[in-house]
Amino acid sequence: MNMNDFQALSPLIIMAASPMAAMLAIAVSRSYRFTATLSLYSIYAALLSLAVAYPQAPHQVSSLIIIDRFAILYMAIILISGAVVIMLSYGYIKKCDINYEEYHILMLLAIMGSMVLVCSSHFASLFLGLEILSVSLYALVAYPKQRIGQIEAALKYLVLAAVSSAFLLFGMALVYADSGTMALSAIESRAAHGTAYTLPFAAGLSLITVGIGFKLALVPFHMWAPDVYDGAPAPVSAFIATVSKGAVFAILLRYFNQSDLSHSSLFFLIFAVIAAASMIIGNILALFQKNIKRVLAYSSISHMGYLLVAFLAGGELSVRIATFYLIAYFIAIFGAFGIISFLSSEDKEADDIDYYRGLSSKRPFLTLVLAAMLFSLAGIPLTAGFIGKFYLITAGVSTGLWKLVVTLALSSTIGLFYYLRIIFNLFAPAENLHLPINVSAAGSVLLITLLLLLLWIGVYPEPLMDGISAILEASF
Amino acid sequence: MILAMLIAIPLLAGLLSWPVSAVHRKAPFWLSLAAVGSDLLITAFIWANNSSNLVATRTNGQWLIDYRRDWMPQMGISIHLAIDGLSLILVGLTAFLAIAAIVSSWSEINERIAFFHANLMFTISGILGVFLTIDLFLFYFFWELMLVPMYFLISIWGHERRAYASMKFFIFTQAGGLLMLISILGIYFIHGKATGVYTFDYNQLIGFSLAQPETIWLMIGFVVAFAVKLPAVPLHPWLADAHTEAPTAGSIILAGLLLKTGAYGFLRFVIPMFPAASAMIATPVMIIGTLSILYGAALAFSQTDFKRMVAYTSISHMGFVLLGIFSFNELALQGTIAQIVAHGISTGMLFLIAGALQERLHTRDLTLMGGMWSTAPRMGAVTLIFAVASLGLPGTGNFVGEFLVLLGSWQANEAITAVATMGLIGATVYAVWLMHVTFFGSAEVDRKFPDLSFREMVVAGIMIAAIIAMGMYPSPLLKISGSSVQALTSGINTMRDASAAWHETHDTIKPGVTR
Description:
The structure holds 2 protein chains of 2 kinds.
Chain A: H1 3-28, H2 32-53, E1 59-61, E2 65-67, H3 69-94, H4 101-119, H5 123-141, H6 150-179, H7 185-191, H8 199-216, H9 224-231, H10 234-255, H11 266-286, H12 292-313, H13 315-343, H14 359-362, H15 364-378, H16 384-398, H17 402-427, H18 441-459, H19 462-472
Chain B: H1 2-23, H2 27-55, E1 65-72, E2 77-83, H3 85-108, H4 113-132, H5 136-145, H6 147-157, H7 162-195, H8 202-205, H9 212-229, H10 237-245, H11 248-273, H12 275-280, H13 282-301, H14 306-325, H15 330-361, H16 377-390, H17 397-412, H18 414-438, H19 454-472, H20 475-498, H21 503-506
Antiparallel strand pairs in B: 1-2
């Protein structure tokens, strides 16, 4: 390890040190405010240190970690999202009558795990990152343990995530047995050549696909998502929907993205079927939900399906488009879950659709934000989601994925139905609206920022796209 | 710049609805009225300034006013607005009907007035955007954008089944829109790969000829989107619900303007961009148009709900539009444009009456009406005028439209035209029947309600003047649209000459000229 290595690793080092610091601080004196502030500031420090690491990129640290521009971009996305989640949690966790300082330690660990994931270049670091992320999430899902269903959700997540990890691990073992290397680039170089598959390699790749499919909650590995989203505290659900999925998707984009991927290869076919199934089934199942968190869970299943269309389109453009779409999707999810977090009380999550009936008459501002976020998820103009969907279809059409693109169009039309139902509820006449909770000033600022960002990207997406392209330029 | 102003004024008025509503609760009403009023004046100004240019025969791509700014230059997307005779007429119609829509909401809307007017203005702004933009991406943008405020208009201020109706409306149009987006992107990439220029600019895409198998599929994306809006018969189910459940202003905008965006799409995009392919589907589409005429008329006659009945007459009238567009000759296309304007005015006014009746009687049920002439003679007279306009009586604008369409389509296909003409009989039946069950006949219940107020009479008077002026002296209107129609037909004729040697499609093109 030399100075350059440390420089490149500085974001990870800061994020590894901050949970320790938080633990020590708790040992001295418990202070919720201090722990939350410490977590936020260490995230800011890690963000700043990305600038330190940036000149080093691309930099391989041992065979485990690669810090390249792609990793830095995704670490930045993860850190910013992590900061947003911590801000959303601040008021939410405070309402619970427990020791809540540890929440932030777990959150910092989960963020660190996601960061390791996007930097990994080796099976070992990939698995390590994934497990740091997952184990923290098991605890986070169950965290304030006051509501029925939370433990159930945590257990379900524990069992299914462990099983999927086992699949992943076994797949890695098979690929290793066949290729003799644990470097992720082994997949990259061989996945493209469909004819060169040996049986262990193909089996290993399939098992890895299953593992990734679980983490992304793609159909048919999606069963856990609605229960976990429903059971987990709203900010944690937001984290699972965004950071955890985004980090795994980054792995997919980085090592499975093949611009010369043949449209007839087995690998392509598997992902095309998964994508179509996720889009259709995610949207259809969301129709029957009465719980807004479950709706968002199913909608995130379909959004991952949409993203796979860009992924399957392949090439450099698709990476940019997928990243753009992820950012647009993150903003909308944070806005929606943010409102759920703000409106939840200590013993009740604001997750029933009827709870929002007539919100517009009492809380016009919250209604505006929530409606804008839902419109963005539905892909309506003026919002980031519209441009994102436009780019996705662009990626699909440019490589002639007609069937997938038409599936995307028609399934997202089904999706409109449940978004509109929520929006209709917001504007329906209020019957017995009781909203005891006021959104704090800081919360309002956060929501306004998210809203402005959503509209800004929706009207003027070029700077964001240029920024993504500029950062990724040398990466691929 | 003046075109951007046309779109920006209602948008701004919509945004200002909330602040001004703090001053006075009816202030948004006056603000919206001022906004669309100034749009109407600007349109008149554009017309007055360019009346000489309109007469000269132009070829495609020469616009009266052309405004272009970069938006997303890397993708070849620009803010490109342009106006020609066709869009000038539609922009004028939009501003004109918007006034009627606003006036109709004076007493009907008493809740969330600011939000209502904001939505109304955003819809108008979106519709104007659709009529004015010639960048395909921006077109799609506005196309989708006008849905959202319309959805709110129906779902918040609508009648009993507003949730169902608004959702059905949104989903139908959105599905069509997304298919259109795929087609737009298909053209974008095929054009880009062939020429190296990736652009959404209409002017550049229009001359580009696509290879055979792709053309049909790409065109179908557009056709579905526009046929949903128009609506053409198998894609119409959203219409009756949306029109019936919407508040009066919403119904006027829906019937008068939103349906016209479908017709406009055919005229502006489908025919010029896919001349050969649209000639291939001409006969089936004309049959669909005829079906719409007859089906709409038959269903209109069997309704018991005033607004639902008027909604079905729209399907019938829009069938004439489809028939006219795919006849591909100057007469039929001129008739189509006249029909668009006449239908906008007459149906808009019928919805206004339906709204006025509902406000007074609290019902739209036709079986509960009857013999109301003695109570409200002014209302009866106005209804009579627009009912006979709806059946296409000579002297009204509708006659000009339907007559020209049938005259033109006769040259294209006699058999279909003969069947379509039966639609006029159907129209007579439902129009006369409507009068019979509402204002004539005997009163089931003795009702006392106020006749049309001064405010309503002013609107009605203007509408009557417009529809009769159009019927008596249609030439100014036809002159404005003439140049656009000539550009369209010259494009079609060029295509015909080119395809003369094309034996496959030769049989399906049956131009009147060669007969």
